Amino acid sequence: MIAEIAKVLSHTAREKRLAVVEASTGTGKTIAYLIAALPIARAQNKTLIVSTGTIALQEQLVKKDLPDLLTHCGWDCSYSMIKGRGRYVCNLRMHQHLSESSASRDIPSFLFDDEKVLEDPATADLYMELSEALESGLWDGDRDTWKNHIDEVQWRPLTVDRRQCAGRSCRFVKECVFFRARGQSEDSDCIVVNHDLAMADFSLGGGVILPPPEESIYVFDEAHRLCETAVRHFGADFHIKSSCNWLEKVIKQCQAQARIHEKAGLLAKHLSVAAEQAQNLLNLFLESYPICEQYLSNTSDSGNEKTFRFSHGNVDNDLRLLSIQMKKFLNEWVKQIESLNDVLRDKLLERASQSVAENFETLFQIVGQWLGRADKMEVLWDKLSREVSSDSIPMACWISNLISASRREEISISAYPILASEPLIERLWGKAHGIVLTSATLRSLGHFNIIQRDIGIPEGARYFAVEGAFNYRKSALLRIPKCALDGNDFAAHTQYIISVLEGLIEDGGGTLVLFASRKQMHEVYHQISIQLRRDVLMQGQFSNGELRRIHVNRIDSDSRSVIFGLATFSEGIDLPGNYCRHVIIAKLPFSVPNEPQHEALCEWIESKGGNAFFDISLPTASLRLNQACGRLLRNETDTGTVTVLDRRLVSKRYGAQLLDSLPPFARDLNANLEV
């Protein structure tokens, strides 16, 4: 693996500097790509950017893998980790929430989309403790390094996004936690990020958060997550009623601030014009609701919640004309708000009296919040305003009515890419100096065709697979009970799982039960025996980290412990050795057929002469099944069993394809189990 990556990254032609490497668990792929890429990046005067799937994997690289490697190699290489701005406390926000000034008390009404900031004694005590630890140097301001878990409702008020940050104009810039963290990365040979941050940079054009792609060599570890992450970043949603309510408050705030700053001349003028333009926007927002209601009235969906999807992403004339108007009015309003933002930034630089400065700081953050929300709206309406080309991959566009827990109705408009290929072709493949994609699961049904299609890997890429270090046949058994049912009969299959599960779970080692649907997981949990339920830790009951900690403690104390998890646990939980001796896969992990993006992708595949099941559903299920089976063996000494409770793996013709793509475990496909 070292040799192949080194050869690819050393190629003279940029289009040939792209390696796609599937490396099974136990290969040592982290060591391989670091040993190959670090010296080549330095020799070519490029920055190595390693992007992982999660913050936890980032921290493993920075705290363990990189230090160990550099120590043993004797290399002089600098490295740093970058996280999103929302992982760091904002010094100004901290000050505002601890201050007793009237300006700071007014902030929550305008900065958090009307979400109520948790104002209880425990939160006040937490903020004071965080502030004292930050000031004394006992804490670095990173949410992930605080000694205890901080709830989102408590953490969010202490952060800002890029639009709300005054940067060098902020009076706390010298103490700024975020800029201190970013400053450490400026001269680093290697920067460790996660996929969300990398995609955020690409969505801004590249080179905004990270070094320019042309000056970078990227390693995308856990590359099977790239498509999902990119699609999420390059799509948008618009909730009509909440947006109308928000804009009404924006108008009132503009008018109120214009009166407060009427002697400021230019500032008051910008605020008054912004209020007028926001009113024009609000009229369009209100106009969109009955139009969308009409689409939903034509759907055949039963029940209260309905979805209308535009075939091939082709929005009809009524909504497209509205979208063109919306885009135009939004663009004008954003320009006005940006001008207002510039005026406020200049005011902050003047360093006026404390009370005046606080008023400008508050208003600057409010305006930043407006811009952040308007940016997302612009993305949505821009996508809906475009004509659909028969040559391009269509968007998935749909309208949904949402029923909240309080029975309030809302209508949402959504537009997302069905694949990540076009956004990445435009922003990554043709720009980066070199790229390595690697994961334990990149092939589907034994080939790389699916990932190539999903993220648009260009011609010239080098594909190869590296076998792992495990003796699969000796270490693990794959079995399917003779009594298993086909998983497509939901009710009967659920009752079957309930009837056999307790007999499958043995003492002496952890068990991981993976479900394809939350509904089935909950039904099984609530209908198993009370005795078994006491031993079950179900995803969602605790944070993932806490759930794993409890499980490990139980196993270490020789108690029985069973984890119930969904698809994210098929790849996002590491339970080596005795912590997982048995993986039970409840059902083959096929995609939900009525999900709008999945429907749109199937529609496009079939319009091109393909078959949605064999080109999408089956390869995706193969990838997920491999990931689920991969939970069992994490080290060379691990042993155990994978039990699949879905008879389709042997009863259906496609089952043979799924079996052939799995690791070569010993097999018993007609197991007589006494349960």
Q: What key attributes describe this structure?
A:
675 residues; alpha/beta; seven-stranded parallel β-sheet; 18 strands; 48% helix; 14% strand
Explain this structure.
The chain is α/β, with parallel strands linked by helices and 675 residues long. 48% of the residues lie in helices and 14% in strands. The protein has 26 helices and 18 strands. The strands form 3 sheets. A 7-stranded parallel beta sheet has the order 3-4-2-5-10-1-11. A 7-stranded parallel beta sheet has the order 14-15-13-16-17-12-18. α4 (91-98) packs across α7. It is globular, with a radius of gyration of 27 Å.
Brief synopsis:
With 675 residues, this protein is α/β, with parallel strands linked by helices.
